Amino acid sequence: MSELSLTSTIPTNQTISVPLLGLGVWKSRPKECFDAVKSALEVGYRHIDTAAIYGNEADVGRAIDESGIKRSEIFLVTKLWNADQGFEEAQKAIDVSLKKLGTDYVDMYLIHFPVSGKRKESWKALEKIKKEGKAKSIGVSNFMVTHLKELLNETEIIPAMNQVEYHPFLQDTKLKEYCEKNGILLEAYSPLAHGQKLEDERVTKLAKKYNKSNAQILIRWSLQSGNVVIPKSKNPIRIKENADVFDFTLSQDDMKEISNWNENFRTCWDPTTVD
To answer: Which is deepest, 57, 71, 99, 214, by most CB within 10 Å?
Structure first.
């Protein structure tokens, strides 16, 4: 994964490839979200990740429409929220999301969280949504190994991707290995640990060594680890900075060192507590 660029993609198990670097828009308010997506597309991002619960799908869609970039050149992801899970409910939810996004399909549709008693039926709905062409690929988010095993025992289609919190301070190697074994891409959200570890002296040391920012070190590590990465930012300067990670490579020794930083440090919700 050393020879990478902003246009690099990785194939999924569902005949579609995902751009390795994308923009996350969680907690981005409407105007902020619109401006952030426009900035990202101008820089060269072609992967935008939103969700129904974020409340900004319409602004993502408007930014894409006004960008002048062909819809087919943008990898657009949204997610099925917990309150809309279930077979019938999920089919209605995708139509609402598509209307807000101003498109007739998304490139990937994810189950946002492994809701007990609903996730199996939700996945059956996603399989139907894919067959209908409303989503080119389908996957999950916040699924741990137990949830994936349950799903793979019954599923007709294996998830293309599992979007989870993943960074040097939260390395669930068992989950990553399980995903790799079953051909499921791991996508890292919160690759900067919500900034809570950004000033860690070990990160700072590497940033000085490579003449890069601390954030760029963390993003580059995740990319070289084979993850799809979606750093979130509303700041145009940071959005550009987060994409400026393709002119250097972390050495094998540094990658090995970072692999020992795991502290099980979770900054978001904890899906390991869901049965």
So the answer is: 57
* pTM: predicted TM-score of the whole model, two decimal places: 0.96
Average pLDDT, the chain: 96
Q: Is residue 273 part of a domain?
A: no
**Buried/exposed code over 108-145 (b: 16+ C-beta within 10 A; e: otherwise):** bbbbbbbbeebbbbbbbbbebbbeeebbbbbbbbbbbb
Does 242 map to a domain?
yes
Catalytic positions: 54
Whether 112 has a binding-site annotation, put simply, is yes
pLDDT of residue 270: 87
Please report, for the domain that includes residue 85, its CATH number: 3.20.20.100
Number of structural domains found in the chain:
1
Residue 58 pLDDT exceeds 60: yes
Domain with 249, as residue range(s), is 9-262
